[in-house]
Specification:
single chain, 3-stranded antiparallel β-sheet, two-stranded antiparallel ribbon
Length: about 110
């Protein structure tokens, strides 16, 4: 199920977590490769087990600076699980994680 299909089926959900899919990626040298989704972003997180990779997909709400009524309204955030950790796929669990990631990114900028 694609992200668009998921949010159409569950209109009350604001985010979801899933494993990365395979996708065509273009790097800075314009080389095109078939890699795991967000592979280059995950590599920037340092050495890790590929089985721990997840993507948090956030449906950007109206009024948010990232909201664009013309383009896709989904933001994909690479995320690594800690060891044998499991994360429940519900908004009550995912929204605090996503807010922490964004606050951390804002404080570094």
């Amino acid at each position: 199920m694609t992200d668009e299909q998921f949010f159409a089926a569950f209109p009350d959900r604001r985010c979801r977590i899933r494993t990365p899919s395979r996708a065509l990626e273009i790097d800075r040298q314009r080389a095109v490769r078939y890699l795991d989704e967000s592979e280059l972003e995950f590599r920037s997180l340092g050495p890790h087990d590929k089985n721990r990779r997840r993507i948090i997909v956030w449906r950007v709400p109206e009024g948010n600076p990232w909201y664009d009524p013309v383009q896709r309204k989904l933001l994909k955030v690479p995320f690594l699980l800690f060891g044998d950790e499991t994360v429940e796929d519900n908004d009550a669990t995912l929204m605090p994680i996503l807010n922490g990631i964004m606050e951390n990114a804002r404080s570094k900028a």
